[in-house]
Amino acid sequence: MSYSTDDQRILDAIERRLTHDDPALATRIDALNKQFPHIPRTPEGGRTRRRSPRVVVAAVLAVIALLALILTVMLGSRSTPPAGTDGGPAALSSPSAYDGRALL
Fold first, then answer.
1. Rounded to whole angstroms, how far apart are CA atoms 58 and 63?
2. How much of the chain exceeds pLDDT 90, in percent?
């Protein structure tokens, strides 16, 4: 990854100041840099591939739509019990709720 000229200038100033303030740390960092050289993680062409913002937005909207569909199916599939089985007012008005005696 290449830095802009301003960024590179700032990094060089930080490196010079670090070398001046703590030479032992600078020596250790140089040794590590020699031991583990930076290998860029770019494709062979040298260009990195970026995702289009439209593709990202489309993917996010598709996931949201899928979740909404799943929730709709889950919440809409709740079946209400048949009238008279839950002990509510419909249960009292059904003929099977009475024991055959007439109420006067």
1. 9
2. 26
Q: Minimal CA–CA distance to 86: which of 75, 101, 97?
A: 97
- Model confidence, pTM: 0.33
Q: 65 is written with which tokens?
A: 């739509």
- Lowest average pLDDT, out of 33-42, 69-78, 83-92, goes to 83-92
**Residue 83 contacts residue 94 (beta carbons within 8 Å):** yes
**Angle formed at CA 17 by CA 16 and CA 21, multiple of 5 degrees:** 120
pLDDT digits (tens, 9 = 90+) for 41-85: 555 555 667 788 999 999 999 999 999 999 999 888 766 666 655
Give which of 5, 30, 6 is closest to 18, Cα–Cα: 30
**Rounded distance between C-alpha atoms, residue 1 and residue 11, angstroms:** 14
Token pair, residue 55, equals 């593709």
Which amino acid belongs to residue 28? R
DSSP 101: P
Rounded Cα gap, residues 55 and 57, in angstroms: 6
